[in-house]
Amino acid sequence: MSDKTQPPSIPPPQAMLSLDPIAHKWRNLVDRRRAHFVDLYLTGRWKRYYSEEQFLTIFRDAMTVAERWTEIAPQPGDAKKPTDVPKI
Predict the structure, then answer these.
(1) What pLDDT was estimated at residue 85?
(2) Cα pseudo-dihedral 40, 45, 51, 54, rounded to 10
(3) What's the burial of 59, exposed, middle or buried (CB within 10 Å: 0-12/13-18/19+)?
(4) Mean of pLDDT over the chain
(5) What is the model's pLDDT at position 1?
(6) Which residues contact 46 (CB under 8 A, 6 or more apart)?
(7) Whole-prediction pTM value?
(8) Alpha-carbon span 63 to 4, nearest angstrom
(9) Which of 19, 34, 39 is nearest to 81 (CA)?
C-alpha cells in the first residue's frame, strides 16, 4: 500500500452548482430596495424619516449597489431598459 493520498477529484463543470439563481434573487432584492428609495424621493416621504444628508447618502448607496448587481447578474431586458432613476 502507498502512503500517498489521492487528491480530491474535481467535479465536471456541469455538475457544479450554478449560482445564477442566487445572484438573481439578490439582484431582485436590491432592485426592490432601489424602487423603494425612488418612491420615497418622488413622493417626498423621505422627509419624515431622514435628514437630507442621511437620505442622500442612503439613496446614493442604494443606486450604486443596484448598478453593481445589474453588472453581476444581468437580466435579459437590461440592455433595452431606459434609465428611469431620477438623479439627485
Answers:
(1) 62
(2) -10
(3) buried
(4) 83
(5) 54
(6) 37, 40, 55, 59
(7) 0.66
(8) 53
(9) 34
Q: For residue 25, what pLDDT band results from cuts at 50, 70 and 90?
A: very high
Amino acid at 29: L
User: What is the chain's length?
Assistant: 88
Give me 12's grid cell: 465536471
Give the C-alpha separation, 39 to 43, whole Å: 6
Say whether pLDDT at 19 is over 60. yes
Q: Which amino acid is at 55?
A: F
Residue for cell digits 431598459?
A: 81
DSSP states of the chain as a string? ---PPPPPPPPPGGGSPP-HHHHHHHHHHHHHHHHHHHHHHHHTTHHHH--HHHHHHHHHHHHHHHHHHHHHS--TTTTT----PPP-
Give the separation between CA 32 and CA 72, rounded to whole angstroms: 16
